[in-house]
Amino acid sequence: MGISIRAEGLRISKGGREILAVDNLEIGRGEVWGLIGPNGAGKSTLIQVLALLEEPDSGSIFFDGQKIDYHRALSWRRQLAVVFQEALLLDTTVFNNVAVGLRFRGIPRPVVKERVEHWLEVLRISHLAGRPARRLSGGEAQRVSLARAFVLEPRVLFLDEPFAALDAPTRGALLEELHLILRETGITAVFVTHDFTELPFLADRVAALQGGRIVQTGRPETILWQPASVELAAFVGITNLLPGEARLNGSGPVQVRLQGGVTILAGTRVGGRVVACLRPEEIIIQGGNAAEAPVNRLRGRVRHIIPQGGQYRVELDCGLPLVALAGASQLRQGCLQPGREVLATFPPEAVHLIPA
Ligand SMILES: Nc1ncnc2c1ncn2[C@@H]1O[C@H](COP(=O)(O)OP(=O)(O)OP(=O)(O)O)[C@@H](O)[C@H]1O
Fold it and tell me: Can you tell me the ipTM of this complex?
């Protein structure tokens, strides 16, 4: 079973600059947390501190409510495991790489053999046991890293962009296996990712960092659909960030007059100057003569169609620039061609407002 983690008042400065300032972070037992944020936001530093690899200048870490004393932290350290982007394998066989941590701990040979074989099997690399670890593919090497971490039966697993260098199918398969293992073992896990699409699949909660501070925590859907800042919205793939003026009408939908004169309805109850956030996948594009939706319908023309990760990014001119996502089948139907007139619709609930 996992450990609960609490961090209070963490501060780290390097090169005369504060690079981490986390006032409060609480991670429940068995929860899986994703850390996101732009380059240099402090994600790796936070992982290092939570994993007790680096002592903060000030502040405290609590595991299961007990404050960490860095001089007596060995027994806690033994309950943690870290997996990095680079597999960092030793120049020996796969089996020995997975066994090394257990041997260090003086675990009897038959137990080592049993546990290593179990985790090689779970991670589907039993057939690689006798292979030199340095000659593995990236995906195989990362499976070995995970086996090496899980074999120690940690209560917290930290992962710093473990799958960043892998191709999409390998990454997808490993994500699915990691998800199942974490659910089965109940281990607490904290992972860093640049790929926000991984979050709803793997994370219970997400912490978004910017400039060394946590700017928002919440469920993955909240972070992706209702980010707290325009910077975070852009970071999590909200391509439509539309400045405007919101008007609250009693308990009715909020009307937003966007720059350029178009008015749309939004789901967030905020008045005044706002930025309306609309995820590209929320926009439905139909042929120009399609039956009109009752609200939030914008007529426009297709400007560009650009392939994007198995889908197509469709740039529209609807009196204001809009970006939508379309599938290959939509493209085959023929209405999505540069220059064609189309109708873009989206539900008010999909429009999130951030005060400007
Ligand atoms: N030893 C150091 N001396 C000076 N600055 C440092 C040092 N280590 C890290 N930093 C700075 O601290 C900030 C946070 O670094 P960190 O590696 O934690 O960010 P990150 O969010 O993990 O970034 P990335 O996504 O690029 O991996 C960066 O601006 C980095 O340059």
Answer: 0.97
